[in-house]
Amino acid sequence: MLRRCVKLLDSRMEATDGMIGKLYDLYFDDRSMRFRYAVIDTGHWLPGRRVLIPIESLGMPYYNRPIVRVNLTKDEIRNAPDWNSTKPVYRENMVELSFVVPPLCGSPDLGLIALPSTHSQEEPDGENHLRSLKEVRRYAIAGPDGTLGTVADFVIRSDKWTLAYILAQPVDTGRSKTAMIEIAELRMIKWEQKTILVNTSKQDLLRCPYFVSPVAAG
Q1: Contact 59, 8 (CB under 8 A)
Q2: Do the Cβ atoms of 187 and 197 come closer than 8 Å?
Q3: Residue 113 pLDDT exceeds 60
Q4: Cβ(26)–Cβ(36) below 8 Å
Q5: 54, 11: one domain
Q6: Which domain holds residue 24?
Q7: Cβ(92)–Cβ(129) under 8 Å?
Q8: Are residues 25 and 82 in the same domain?
């Protein structure tokens, strides 16, 4: 099911043995455009903490309730790595910590959480590719013939937790309503310029569909 990310952020998070807080942010790999980690604000349960968990541990969100199930126990959440807002994960200085959880959904690679560090441990190509959804939601969008608009939101496939569309707020393109640009159209994200480059032209944007919220059956 297609869902807007803005509708999912701040959802209540439900572990296998009780509520654990709210969904604060999502991190994705800018090469595969797949989510890797979720940030949970543990609120009154663990005051002052925000923790990182693997995206594979998230269940499908409820349609008619702002709740996302987490296939982990409270103890596993309590032992998860902290997220540090003063050292953003989208920066290049990272270190991997071990976070052992039971294998879920047949995924063999749960357990590696990328966290910021005061020393650089760069990937082989010299750049970290883990990005904050909240950060990118403020970026500009540019096509081959100029600026198309800004990122209003992203649309995800909530059954797989994958990015499906960029929801663009057009400017100077002859279109006023938001447009859905397929993720496959994305060419590059220019982090220093805070801009997403796409293959979509201004004429193409006029033909892009609108986002229509799904209607619950029954």
Answers
A1: no
A2: yes
A3: no
A4: no
A5: yes
A6: 2-132
A7: no
A8: yes
The two three-digit tokens of residue 49, written as one number: 């903490």
The CB density around residue 199, as the number of other CB atoms within 10 Å, is 13
Is residue 122's pLDDT more than 60?
no
Taking the model in full, what pTM does it have?
0.77
Do 72 and 14 sit in the same domain of this protein? yes
Residue 160 in domain:
yes
Q: Where are the beta strands (DSSP E) in the chain?
A: 2-4, 12-15, 18-29, 34-41, 50-54, 67-69, 94-98, 112-116, 130-132, 140-143, 146-157, 162-170, 179-182, 186-190, 195-198
Provide the CATH number for the domain around residue 145.
2.30.30.240
Task: Please state, in angstroms and as integers, the Cα–Cα distance from residue 114 to each residue in 85, 108, 194, following that order.
Answer: 14, 17, 22
Q: Around 144, how many Cα atoms within 13 Å sit in the side-chain half-sphere?
A: 7
Q: What is the 8-class DSSP label of residue 83?
A: P
User: Hey, what are 76's tokens?
Assistant: 């596993």
Residue 136's φ and ψ, nearest 5 degrees, are -70, -25
Per-residue pLDDT tens over the stretch 93-107: 333 333 433 333 333
Tokens encoding 143 = 């096509």
Closest by CA position to 149, among listed 161, 137, 141: 141
For residues 85 and 122, membership in a common domain is answered with yes
Taking each continuous run of H as one helix and of E as one strand, the counts in the chain are: 4, 15
Structure tokens at 104: 């879920």
Quote the mean pLDDT of the chain: 78
> Which tokens go with 139?
């970026």
